[in-house]
Design a protein that fits this description.
single chain; mainly alpha; globular; 225 residues
Length: 225
């Protein structure tokens, strides 16, 4: 599936134009936030078309829809990040208070500091969970068009337990890290934006494939039961 994903951005006529537009948005988005909104909208469109069985990347058109979808996609990602961020912040505050209390000779200082470290550990765990489940949440948003669908814990957890989803997410993040990593290094010569965008499109293709096949498997299992 990974090899298929790496070929996906090149399929169909006009793919060079699509990559060029996405690369410009990626490059400008590194300086200002606004271009990242339609870029996220495009990636949501990749999720939608792939989950519907289309094997070619969509075009950059309907810019108003791209902005709306991008804002919704960003909202979902921010929502999933809130708990890890809050736990990390609380951990720093509690741990710092514990250190301060220890310096002041308070007996509870060490205990409070330990609690802070527990909160930071929980932050790391919830962050990993969010990174794992956000692709499913975004794919549900793309398929249904409903923001509430991105927070359907039962459906998302059911797909998340399927091996095909695990494999797809791992492969997607491998593609994202490797391809965009090369792009980040090359950004100094402006070519890197192409790699970054290309890697994102390949990864989102894998996200959609993994969730779609996993949710289909979950539905089949439910039906046979």
């Amino acid at each position: 599936m990974l090899a298929d994903a790496l070929r996906y951005p090149q399929r169909g006529p006009g793919w060079l134009k699509t990559v060029a537009i996405g690369s410009v948005l990626t490059l400008v988005g590194a300086v200002t936030f606004v271009p990242l909104i339609p870029l996220q909208g495009y990636l949501l469109r990749v999720l939608r078309t792939t989950s519907l069985g289309q094997d070619r990347p969509p075009a950059f058109d309907g810019w108003s829809d791209l902005f709306v979808d991008g804002a919704r996609a960003i909202a979902v990602q921010v929502a999933y990040a809130l708990l890890p961020v809050w736990l990390l912040f609380a951990g720093f505050v509690v741990s710092g208070y514990g250190v301060f209390s220890s310096l002041g000779g308070t007996d509870l200082g060490a205990t409070v500091e330990a609690l802070g470290w527990v909160l930071m550990a929980l932050s790391a765990l919830t962050f990993v969970a969010a990174v794992y489940l956000v692709p499913a949440a975004l794919t549900r948003l793309a398929r249904t068009g409903r923001l509430r669908a991105a927070f359907d814990r039962r459906e998302i957890a059911a797909a998340g337990r399927r091996p095909i989803y695990v494999v797809a997410v791992i492969e997607a993040y491998v593609a994202l890290i490797v391809v965009t990593g090369v792009g980040t290094v090359l950004t100094v010569i402006l070519v890197g934006a192409v790699f970054v965008f290309y890697g994102q499109v390949a990864a989102f293709y894998l996200f959609a494939r993994g969730y779609t096949e996993a949710s289909r498997g979950a539905d089949d299992s439910a039906g046979s039961a």
